[in-house]
Amino acid sequence: MEHLKTYYRHDHYRHDRHIIIEGPVSGDTLSRYTFDDGLVAFRRPPEQFEAIREIADLPEGRIIICRDKDNIIGYTTYLYPDPLERWSEGNLPFLLELGAIEVSLHYRSLGLGKEMLKLSMRDDQVEDYIIITTEYYWHWDLKNTKLNVFDYKKIMQKMMAAGGLEVFSTNDPEITSHPANCLMARIGSRITNEQIDQFDKIRFTNRFFM
């Protein structure tokens, strides 16, 4: 499958700030910028910066960023699911995972998560993908937001809906281990019924289908 990437840019003005939202960007482009020290959700900022540069240069990899001048203050990653997760079963070339979305603590409440998702879906290529995201409460910033897991879940689902993602059921043990966890997905307009059937079989691994 050929992965075409069309660059888009959006200038976001809010609270006297001018934030540039753009992508997909390459690893070389990312290297021209700095990486905000408030991006700490997954690993130390230098390590996470290296990780997204590597993802950017994967054939299927897509990195959408938001930046304040030359400082990256948010990012979204799209790539094939981790080989150790059930979502990689069958090596479906049309199944992409929204692996991470993060905005620096210093830039929260500006609507940047939604804007990155909206820009991600402007590319016509996404109509050839099923894009999934697995939401686990242990990845959420409950400490700084002071929200409980179910209020945070509502916020996450509303944000993902800005990119056209909806909740899908699954029997995946990690997701069913807690009621705040969920699977969300966006089905591209050119996805066939056969491809949807393949996705359904992964969602309900080991379940009998009529």
The termini sit apart by: 30 Å
Instruction: Provide the structure class.
Output: alpha+beta
Q: So how many helices?
A: 7
Radius of gyration equals 17 Å
Q: Averaging pLDDT over every residue, what do you get?
A: 93
Strand content: 25-35%
Protein name: GNAT family N-acetyltransferase
GO biological process, one term: acetoin catabolic process
GO molecular function: acetoin dehydrogenase (NAD+) activity; acyltransferase activity, transferring groups other than amino-acyl groups
InterPro entries: AcuA, Acyl_CoA_acyltransferase, GNAT_dom
Record the SSE blueprint.
Elements: E1 8-14, E2 17-23, H1 27-31, E3 34-35, H2 45-56, E4 62-68, E5 71-79, E6 95-103, H3 112-120, E7 130-135, H4 142-145, H5 149-161, E8 166-168, H6 173-176, E9 182-187, H7 193-203
Parallel strand pairs: 3-5, 6-7
Antiparallel strand pairs: 1-2, 2-4, 4-5, 5-6, 7-9, 8-9
Task: Provide an overview of this structure.
The protein is built from seven helices and nine strands, in the order E-E-H-E-H-E-E-E-H-E-H-H-E-H-E-H. The mean pLDDT is 93. The longest helix is centred in the C-terminal third of the chain and has 13 residues, at 149-161. Strands 1, 2, 3, 4, 5, 6, 7, 8 and 9 form a nine-stranded mixed sheet that branches. With 210 residues, it is of the alpha+beta class. The relative contact order is 0.15. Helix 3 links the parallel strand 6 (95-103) and strand 7 (130-135).
